[in-house]
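Bumping with the actual sequence this time:
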Amino acid sequence: MTIDSSNIPDDSDKAERSSYFGLPSLDVSVSFPQATPASIFPPSASDYYHFDDLLTPEEQAIRMKVRACMEKEIAPIMTEYWEKAEFPFHVVPKLGALRIAGGTIKGYGCPGLSITASAIATAEVARVDASCSTFILVHSSLAMLNIALCGSEAQKQKYLPSLAQFNTVACWALTEPDYGSDASSLKTTATKVEGGWILEGQKRWIGNSTFADVLIILARNTTTNQINGYIVKKNAPGLTATKIQNKIGLRIVQNGDILFKNVFVPDEDRLPGVNSFQDINKVLAVSRVMVAWQPIGISMGAYDMCHRYLKERKQFGAPLAAFQINQQKLVEMLANIQAMTLVGWRLCKLYEKGTMTPGHASMGKAWITLKARETLALGRELLGGNGILADFLVAKAFCDLEPIYTYEGTYDINTLVAGREITGLASFRPAALNRRSRL
């Protein structure tokens, strides 16, 4: 069928539209009064196997403190900011007051939490809003941890106290347009000059980058051909960071493209402990544990929402919770959460004992995100039409999980990291393309 483009309505024919066209949408509590939206967050109902008993009193207290803050301060505004794809800067001081930035780092104004406490805090933030948890994770478990593990004493003293309070915000830049999973092949360069270094290149998908005060940049030393780390301050001459538009997940997170054009970094801002990609892996091993706890938290929130919704929403004269197939799906969600939580907890214990390997972290992150995908799909089904509305959390959580399934190593790459560890054979690269098959 051919359509005459001249007949396509636009703003010029408003007079032909209905008198109520363009009226503000009804508040969801008015348009759908039978169920409570996520702005009034549901009570926690997912700890079926009493995982809380495994936590220390300190870890339990952190869980409750973070949960209370997220439910009170973030839940009422998250849908609005997610829809606008904007960051709620006014909540940063409230997140700073939680004293979770810096996680396991000891000293320099950082909280020095156990890795379990840090993981629990990550899950509780993600339970309400995954974007907020990613904002904190990039700032804390990547940028701050990189300074703590690989920075000089002077750098730790200079940067960590302010970052721990969220008085300043950091980002961490590894990924490039041409190098995602193959990050160790990055081509942003650092060239030695008198008194410092010149950075040239481009980074992509860097969370917090458009407003970060401190940018941790991984670049290739043109002399050694190895990966080095650099601290770049916002507004450095030649530095630009622009927002990536049109994301369907983690919409509150401000991911950016970063360009370096003759950016000078003084010698004092080179991270002395980053001399190869192996040094970066020390940071990634810890951050992957934190990332593994994000989908646990997201799944907890989705379950809590479904649990309340099914008891409130009625069809055929009965609550949806009264139907067998809905109970079965709810139990499947709950069982997944118990298993995911215990895998995440075990990762933390292995780390605390000093026996966690990269394969452990990678398999945990891969498997947990896989089960979370399954869990969120069940939640999406249970909410029916409301399963595509961000107002009822599950649709938003469903979309937010997708980038987490991919970042910090895709599912496939993380399985290959674990596979290399258990077989002793690396299979990241294909066989030589010019080699003929013997068949």
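The tokens above came from a reply further down the thread. The CA atoms of residues 213 and 234 lie 5 Å apart.
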